[in-house]
Amino acid sequence: SIAIEDGDYLQEAWEHVLTCLSRFEHLHLLGEGAPTDASFLTVPLVDSEEKTQKSSTNTASKRTNALQNPAVMAAVRGGSYDSTTAKNNASALVTPDQINNFISNINLLDQIGIFELNHIFAHSQRLNSNAIVTFVEALCKVAITELQSPTDPRIFCLTKIVEIAHYNMNRIRLVWSRIWKVLSDFFVSVGSSENLSVAIFVMDSLRQLAMKFLEREELANYNFQNEFLRPFAVVMQKSNASEVRELVVRCVSQMVLSRVNNIKSGWKSVFTVFTAAAADDRKSIVLLAFETMEKIVRDYFPYITETETTTFTDCVKCLITFTSSKFSSDASLNAIAFLRFCAVKLAEEGFVCHDKDTDHQSNNLDSSEGNAIVHKDDHVYFWVPLLAGLARLTTDTRPTIRKGAVEVLFDILKDHGELFSQSFWTNIFGSVIYPLFNSEICTPNGQSDSTEDGSWNFETKTVAVKCLVDLYVTFFDVMRPELTRVTSVVTSFIRSAYRQSASIGMSVFQRLTEGLASKLSKDEWKEILLCFKESAAHTLVVFDKIVKMMQNIEIPERNESYSEAEKYSDPDIEDEEEANMETSSYAIVKMKNHMSLQLLIVQGIVKLYETHRRSFCAEHMGIILEMLSAITSHASEVSSESALHIKFHKACSLLEISEPAVIHFENESYQSYLKLLQALLHDNPSLSREMNIESQIMLVSVKILRKYLNCAGQEPSKDASCKDPVVHWALPLSAAKKEELSARTPLVLHVMRLLGGLERECFRRNLPLLFPLLANLVRCEHSSREVQVALYDVFQSSIGPIISV
């Protein structure tokens, strides 16, 4: 009567009233002989909805049987039952007076009845706003006391919590929020209980309650769904019991799949639960959660995008977490595939990024955690978390995930890029694409010149740069201002000290120029060529460092050796020798690699000219020829270092490895240079005259012939008209010089064929420069037969006709 009539004024006294009601209900169960709650709270899981109440028939018989229950015997004696002491008290008999008193009490309870008890809880909907909050607080306290009993846990108040929540569901939002704050803390506290059965029963009760709430449609801007589902998310994150976590996933999955039409703000808690499940250490939980996520994304995607934009962000974060699963690579790759599917769905639903809100789009894509205040109509905020999430996956430690993320990221951009405005594209390049290439280019074996590799590997960056070029060529008209920076990214591969990286860089660079050739202006061609030139120049700087490294090493003679006594007395001698040889080996390998890299660049330059020569003006050709001239001059300088050759010979003999083919490197460089000059002279005479290409050909040819004569020990005559030339004795060449002269022969033959192919007037103009060198070749005793034959052809085909005229 007090509870019903004075409920608005009980305040903290509600706890005493509810404690009495709990004991009344307990006595009813004891009197009926019904099993105690403890009997099923100690078994794994019995669904509370499957509980059945025993019939009230045969009450007398049940009461007689109830007296055999130790708990009843304890109640009859007026004490409390403790299972741990039941055996010790088994001999304590119940007196007849105690039995009669207990039966009379049960008869009194029959007069009260369960209906009166339930009426108090149903009447709670009539309590005022403050009283109902106090009532719920007291009910939660008594429920915790019941559930936490070490010997006789009970669920009476827990079931009443579900009931009163249902009764008071129509309260105004402000009061509801206060009620649920209390209930939420209760469910989180008990759901994290160490008593597994209690925790499972509580979470199942929360499921029942949540299902009732989800039957009601949530009003706009009403966040209550998220509030009443939040205990699931908190328990999922805090519980140490895998059984409880699995139950949470099953409960949330059931709610989503059965009430998906009504879920609004609740999506946030749903994705929080599945995100926690994705990182779980139990495989069954991970796969169960992913199965539901798969169905949500595939079948219910519109429900995600029709609510807040942060809902889609949470969905993407959840899928990204699944990619980190340590149990199933299939789940990880499928999660990435679903990110691609999300992009397809966004495109199908018409989420286009316009330029109407440039200020919003200027935000970095990295700020995709959903914390920023956004407008629902700004479709850019649906694409942002998707692209930024994939960008983060490109730094994953697993190669398959990195590669998959890169491919999906660029596929999304390429397939749906027409939906993006120019300002959004600029943001994508700055915040997503360019950061992929910030670290140094790695080598095929995983090494890098940078200590901050950032878990990137060579294969992943290779995929990324190829995708970048394809994407840029496709959307060049929109992203034209990014030409210089994109070219810099591509040519950064050429800077690598490793041939395979440079080879990929050259291949991608050619793909870029071929894709854009017809669209580029003269200034844009200049930008591309200057980027190429800068990267090529960088490789020469590295080459110089390798040469200096070798020059600073002391290589011992093969016949030099220290006595055992010297080495024993000074072990530093042996250590220094070993260090020098290790450094020599490293320098030789790097030298070979770098010469191969330089030749690769030379070939790329020649191919660039052959493919796009019609697009090049004098300024463009000037840049190209400067690149070739720098490489050939550098090769000539290195091949002229006789001391360096001696060191290479010594070191390679001791290491038993082949020497760097320095002269071959020089020959190949000069031949390519001359072929390009000759092609330019033939293809574009007017441009050749403007650039004085003929003079450049003569200078290079003279330089090559002089070097050959010097190697042969034949110094060019300073005065070709001298009537009494000084007679020199011909000295035999050393084996090394003979070998060098033989290596230089192909280049000289190339020069002779070039000179023989010049037009008569061109040859006549340059004959005063060439004739002294040709005359010296005539008297050169160490030149090969091939050179003499080529020289004969030049005199016969070019000089003879001039004389005969």
TrEMBL record:
Tree of life domain: Eukaryota
Cellular component GO terms held in the UniProt record: trans-Golgi network
Listed Pfam families: BIG2_C (PF20252), Mon2_C (PF16206), Sec7-like_HDS (PF09324)
Record-annotated Mon2/Sec7/BIG1-like HDS domain positions: 212-294
Residues annotated as signal peptide: none
Domain Sec7/BIG1-like C-terminal positions: 596-796
Alphabetical list of SUPFAM superfamilies matching this protein: ARM repeat
InterPro entries named among the record's database cross-references: ARM-like, ARM-type_fold, Mon2/Sec7/BIG1-like_HDS, Mon2_C, Sec7/BIG1-like_C
Domain (Mon2 C-terminal): residue spans on this chain: 369-438
Protein's recorded name: Mon2/Sec7/BIG1-like HDS domain-containing protein
Organism: Aegilops tauschii subsp. strangulata
Lineage, opening ranks: Eukaryota, Viridiplantae, Streptophyta, Embryophyta, Tracheophyta
